Q: What sequence folds into this?
């Protein structure tokens, strides 16, 4: 019974494993203020187009902000508590310098290096295969035979195994009008 349960779990996991593979993975990099209160930490980050940089500090001794020198982003007025995020969209690749306006003369500057996003994969033409229809992944699809059929078969096997372990594995039908006795013949008793 344990093998059957393990097989069911394995089947379900393997059938859903590819469902999440196509999702994009945009990342977020957090920039804070270091313990000197006059430097960004990290002072330089490298990301890919589509990623986000989050400027976050809370309860700092001095008020700070993050402003791009070319004006691409601006966290607003300097504050001791900042939570500002900026997503570098496609087309913003390059090196972007930013400063803390009140502490620029003390060297509180940072850099965001944005690398170009990798090109989207080009779809391959679908090969035609005899005997089945081809799906978008190139796998052959057989009509009316899918996960439902497999799960139904596994359910039937599970019910059968459960019945066998409970001692209900053998069922008998007795011929009409007769009572089963030790001397019954094959014509009188039909096994399922």
A:
């Amino acid at each position: 019974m344990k093998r059957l349960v393990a097989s069911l779990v394995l089947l379900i996991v393997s059938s859903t494993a590819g469902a999440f593979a196509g999702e994009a993975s945009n990342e977020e990099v957090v920039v804070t203020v270091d313990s000197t209160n006059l430097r960004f930490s990290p002072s330089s980050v490298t990301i890919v187009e589509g990623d986000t940089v989050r400027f976050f500090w809370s309860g700092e001794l001095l008020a700070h902000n993050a402003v791009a020198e070319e004006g691409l982003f601006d966290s607003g007025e300097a504050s001791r508590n900042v939570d500002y995020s900026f997503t570098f969209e496609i087309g913003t690749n390059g090196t972007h310098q930013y400063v803390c306006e009140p502490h620029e003369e003390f060297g509180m500057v940072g850099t965001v290096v944005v690398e170009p996003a990798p090109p989207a994969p080009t779809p391959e033409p679908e090969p035609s295969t005899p005997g089945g229809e081809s799906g978008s992944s190139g796998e052959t699809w057989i009509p009316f035979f899918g996960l439902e059929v497999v799960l139904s078969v596994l359910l039937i096997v599970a019910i059968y195994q459960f019945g066998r372990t409970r001692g209900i594995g053998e069922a008998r039908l007795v011929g009409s009008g007769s009572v089963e006795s030790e001397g019954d013949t094959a014509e009188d008793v039909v096994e399922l």
